[in-house]
């Protein structure tokens, strides 16, 4: 413990920092223009120290953003050094040169100064509905270079000593389809940065600069020690698991992701050397995306209440060859990287099945099923882009069923309400339900996937959808059965149903047709024959499972 900090003061200051990150998060959400932020909450906020080490992340932030905000600030420090000034705001999105995740995720960071001393940064990241590119929403599975995915923003100043750099702002907006909406969302990010900086300065005024720096160091040190203590409880040994992505939307199918976890004492190494090389399609990960996935997985398994900060990174070693699917090289395409992140979580959990049976779940829907609808709104003649990533099933657990129709693991976002879709866009939601029989049978069943049926109203609409776990089903554990894969369809006016590819790009439809999206369910936990009478009765009453499904997998009364 640092000399100037007692344990009670440390706890109070830590909660103060968390509340600042949370207030910035809510400010961004309440100020944003797009449904993806104000309704789905696809954004994160954080505070770092002066070296770019992540100290605190907002409670509802996305684990997928864990490494990218610190990655941005590390680039700021490396590139600008002594030329960082009060009132600056830095912006970037590029995963290859600026620590980003993928191009729709735009990062911002603002330095915190006190008495001319750089104390740290307030950062945020937002998934924007569109950043230009060859495909609307940059969500097509068929892109093979990052240049096609949208506007690449290297690390640049958006504000210089408190004054906006208008040339940069105009350049950004000119390359985005919905410039007014993007301007509103970018301004929301700016406001969140300013509020966070203001609040941290108020905290410094109650103490001093030395106290806050010592607090930062103590938080990181204690987080690392706590993670190491949890790691030390795992039996020493090597643990391996392999799973597969369906395809990359182009030429590569059954893409292997494999990990060997080497644990000894309080040290742990995640070795992904046997994973396939980077692919042409946009499912590649940069190293920081893999790092976020691994750190999330270990935290969820060992110590869910552990703070989200760089202390976790410092306790873990990750080995991935450059040019791998999980450590790609420029100009690899990365737009749909979150599907791959979900599969990284699956393989880490899979490796621990036998030694952490109470913490493991059946495989979740394992995807970030994306749907983009775009066109000209017939009501006002303006272009619109509706972007959503759909939830699915959560895996069955040691003592509970999996949850139905939720975002899992790294995608801590909400499902967009029907009312929000129909108020904002010229679209009609004809059905929003669970997919019958999609949860894997088990002593504790897997969660169900989501079905949405959406029809455009009085205009021609472009649909792009990308799904994973459409071929490789989410696996069950300890005798649990796999969940049902996802599917896309077109429902024609004559009643005919046409199945679409899992990587469906630029499908044009009118009000004569509707798009059906079904997301994957999840794997069950334990032998279905051991399911309790009470839970089996709930299955029958709920209508979530057909009688034929129950007869196939369960005993009957």
Write up what this structure looks like.
- There is one protein chain.
- This protein is α+β, with helices and mostly antiparallel strands and 557 residues long.
- It contains 12 helices and 20 strands.
- The strands form 4 sheets. The chain has a 7-stranded antiparallel beta sheet with strand order 2-1-5-4-3-6-7. Strands 14-15-20-17-18 form a 5-stranded antiparallel beta sheet, with helices on one face. Strands 8-9-10-11 form a 4-stranded mixed beta sheet.
- The chain is globular and about 70 Å long.
- The model has no long low-confidence stretch (mean pLDDT 92).
- Mean pLDDT equals 92
The helix tally amounts to 12
Distance between the termini: 61 Å
Order of strands in the sheet with the most strands? 2-1-5-4-3-6-7
Rounded to an integer, what's the Rg over CA atoms? Answer: 23 Å
Main sheet? Answer: 7 strands, antiparallel
User: How much of the residues is beta strand, in percent?
Assistant: 15-25%
Uncertain stretches of 5 or more adjacent residues? none
Number of E-state strands: 20
What structural class is derived from the secondary structure elements? alpha+beta
Principal-axes geometry comes out as globular
Helix content: 25-40%
